[in-house]
């Protein structure tokens, strides 16, 4: 799809949940459905720990370890930018700064995994079997709850079947006035 936007405003939707609820699992099943619906999707994922996307033995790793504060690795198929935060700066990433790095000409929708305290529209992923409380009770930005047990969600909050990505995609399309993404089940 990727329609040109004069204001570069791109719908932003978070997926929030307690660890182990299945955010990444849901997103890996949902992304192909959104793509089949014609959407270009960007994703920002929050990591709570030290992580690497390059590994010992790779040139990019050696260059970063040698002191390069930013390393951009590019090929004909993809590119990745790694930016080191200052030593000792254990500051959580700021979502607005990460969004600013997204190429708005190549995205119709930005999905955000994590950042559950950000004041953005969110779908909560909830599995009662984890024994964790619903986030929607304290977060007015949660627009729906994707769950395997809809009866636990308070009345008045939209529920979505956790295992039906077609229904979830249709809800996203409806909520953000995106093209008809269909309601057929594509779990």
Please, could you describe this protein's structure?
By secondary structure, the protein is of the alpha/beta class. It has two domains: 1-46 and 93-187, Rossmann fold (3-Layer(aba) Sandwich); 51-90, no CATH class. Helix content is 20%, strand content 21%. The chain contains four helices and eight strands; from the N terminus they run βαβαββαββββα. It has helices at residues 23-36, 59-65, 95-99, 165-175; strands at 12-16, 41-45, 70-74, 79-83, 109-113, 122-126, 142-147, 159-161. The strands form two sheets. It has a six-stranded parallel β-sheet with strand order 2-5-1-6-7-8. A two-stranded antiparallel sheet has the order 3-4. Residues 4-8 have low confidence and may be disordered.
Low-confidence stretches: 4-8
* Rg over CA atoms: 18 Å
Q: How does CATH name the architecture of the largest domain?
A: 3-Layer(aba) Sandwich
End-to-end Cα distance, whole Å, is 23 Å
Query: Helix proportion of residues, in percent?
Result: 10-25%
Largest sheet: 6 strands, parallel
In CATH, what is the homologous superfamily of the largest domain? P-loop containing nucleotide triphosphate hydrolases
Main CATH class of the largest domain: Alpha Beta
How much strand content do the residues show?
Answer: 15-25%
Mean pLDDT: 87
Number of domains: 2
User: How many strand units?
Assistant: 8
CATH-defined fold name of the largest domain? Rossmann fold
Number of helices: 4
Order of helices and strands: EHEHEEHEEEEH
Q: Helix/strand-derived class?
A: alpha/beta
What would you call the shape? globular
Q: What spatial order of strands do you see in the largest sheet?
A: 2-5-1-6-7-8
């Amino acid at each position: 799809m990727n329609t040109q936007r004069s204001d570069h405003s791109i719908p932003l939707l978070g997926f929030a949940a307690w660890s182990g609820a299945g955010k990444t699992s849901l997103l890996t099943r949902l992304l192909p459905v959104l793509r089949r619906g014609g959407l270009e999707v960007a994703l920002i994922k929050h990591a709570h720990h030290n992580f690497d996307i390059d590994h010992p033995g790779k040139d990019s790793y050696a260059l970063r370890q040698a002191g390069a504060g930013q390393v951009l690795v590019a090929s004909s198929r993809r590119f990745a930018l790694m930016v080191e935060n200052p030593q000792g700066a254990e500051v959580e990433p700021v979502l607005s700064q990460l969004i600013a790095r997204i190429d708005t000409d190549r995205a119709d929708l930005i999905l955000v995994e994590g950042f559950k305290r950000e004041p953005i529209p969110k779908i909560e992923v909830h599995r009662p079997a984890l024994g964790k409380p619903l986030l929607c009770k304290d977060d007015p930005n949660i627009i729906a709850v994707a769950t395997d047990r809809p009866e636990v969600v308070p009345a008045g909050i939209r529920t979505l079947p956790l295992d039906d990505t077609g229904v979830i995609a249709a809800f996203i399309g409806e909520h953000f006035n995106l093209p008809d993404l269909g309601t057929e089940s594509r779990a």
